[in-house]
Write a structure and sequence with these properties.
The chain is α/β, with parallel strands linked by helices. 38% of the residues lie in helices and 14% in strands. It contains twelve helices and nine strands.
Length: 312
């Protein structure tokens, strides 16, 4: 078996069997990561460039760790301090890098659709590490993988995605991934942070009441308020938002059942999620971080054209 795509540009491009193959491969790599020697030489003849035109900490480090665990040669590129600041175009930047015989590109960009544009002009596999407010496919894969690990499966589970839905590429990729795997999804947040017609367009439930959403769900994926993407104020203040939509331990303890709490990071502690909730037994946030390396190892491995039977 192999992936049906040559690039990982978004979840909407994947079939269910692609997602399941990535999960099966990640299961094997997670076993590798538990060993004293956490490296395999499967991509030792491969050079991967991380093209980050937008700031990142967790995603960039996770990809770099995944690449090095696979034995790949890694080149890190940051737009700040590069010729991009002098007006060099995206195509010229990438072509200059590819002329150095790079085999794969991992790309994050503030413009929605940038990886899709690039895929039409270059021949090597591209992994979308987040494009604008469009998609963040590896985050959605690791989130669903983490739910599967904690609850046994994704199918039939009720997942609430809470917070800034309008500006979140994580929300969109999660909706595509969860629905493809058979989960039921509710988005919850202030009306100003949920796009109109979302229920009809994506087949999700919409709620404006955080308690009702938490009482309904098995899993709550709490999103950060993305102030940097908001051109105008969409709620009165962070304090008011926290009081109306923040998830804290007292709220979780008042529910009639125990639910799983997730967060893609970075957490604005005390805003969308309190410290006592983030660090509680409900939380699988650190599991998400750990699973991110295994999922990204699987994606890179499969896109490199390797057979899924791993010699590890």
């Amino acid at each position: 078996m192999s992936l049906s795509v040559n690039h990982l540009l978004g979840i909407r491009n994947l079939k269910r069997q692609d997602i399941e193959l990535i999960f099966q491969t990640a299961d094997t790599f997670k076993g590798v990561l538990q060993r004293p020697i956490k490296k395999v030489p499967t991509l030792r003849d491969t050079t991967i460039v991380n093209l980050f035109f937008e700031n990142s900490t967790r995603t960039r480090i996770s990809f770099e760790l995944a690449e090095k665990r696979l034995g790949a040669d890694v080149v890190n590129f940051s737009a700040s301090g590069s010729s991009v600041s002098k007006g060099e175009t995206l195509i010229d930047t990438v072509n200059n890098i590819l002329s150095m015989k790079v085999d794969m590109v991992v790309m994050r960009h503030s413009a929605s659709g940038a990886p899709h544009f690039l895929s039409k002009h270059i021949q090597v596999p591209i992994v979308n590490a987040g494009d604008g407010i469009n998609e963040h496919p590896t985050q959605a894969l690791l989130d669903a993988f983490s739910i599967r690990e904690r609850l046994g499966s994704v199918a039939g589970k009720k997942v609430a995605i809470c917070g800034d839905i309008m500006h979140s590429r994580v929300a969109l990729s999660n909706i595509y991934c969860l629905k493809e795997l058979g989960a039921e999804v509710t988005v919850v947040g202030p009306p100003t942070l949920i796009p109109k017609h979302m229920a009809e367009a994506l087949g999700v439930n919409v709620s404006y009441n955080i308690r009702e959403a938490l009482e309904w769900c098995d899993v709550a994926n709490v999103l950060r308020i993305q102030l940097e993407r908001q051109n105008t104020p969409l709620f009165s203040s962070l304090r008011e938002y926290s009081l109306a939509y923040g998830v804290n331990k007292a709220l979780l303890d008042s529910l009639k059942k125990e639910i799983v709490i997730m967060h893609p990071g970075p957490i604005n502690r005390g805003v969308e999620l309190s410290s006592d909730a983030a660090d509680s037994s409900h939380s699988i946030i650190l599991n998400q971080v750990e699973n991110g390396v295994a999922i990204r190892m699987a994606v890179l491995y499969l896109l490199a054209g390797k057979k899924p039977e791993l010699a590890v």
